[in-house]
Task: structure prediction
Amino acid sequence: MSEKEVFRVLVEFPWIIFVIYWILGAIKTRATRQQESFASRYLVVLLEIVGYGLIFSHSARVGFLGNRFMHRTRESAAVGAALTWLGIGLAIWARYHLAEYWSARVTIKEDHQLIRTGPYAHLRHPIYTGLILATIGSAVVIDEWRCVFGVCLVLTGYCLKARKEEAMLRQQFGEAFREHQKHTGFLIPRFR
Result:
């Protein structure tokens, strides 16, 4: 196995762990009280599908999209793999703290609580932060222009989704959420 293939496996493995954890975690969630419409969700889903498709699909290597975007070294690949693992770890940690209030869609669950433990003490959207970090790490390891465009699409999608989520949380929790915003970062942690 070549060094490039080793790093690729190191990047794919945490994503597999992530998918398995997400599927198992989705089994036990609270009933939904309010959720975004499908039309509202469509753009974000499209951005994420195209973004991740560009990053992880070999068939996206069309023209210059298959060219390297930086001089890849063993060190840069190791940093990319570490960012991927760190990002997936953050997303799983956040998902653990969100517990039964998690949903793939922007929702308010029955008896919804504002979570402020774990990574939510410093970030309002740690799952998105983790996934963005893992996406950037994966792009660094794969090192092709298609990944740069994929990261841009994924980042845009998660920012749009986080904005919708914040509007719904502000409506649900009012002043408590506004206070939470003062002490936490949107996608970058804020330490008091």
Notes: The chain has a mean pLDDT of 91. Residues 139 and 148 are 7 Å apart (CA to CA). The radius of gyration is 17 Å. Helices lie at 3-25, 38-56, 74-98, 126-142, 145-173, 175-183.
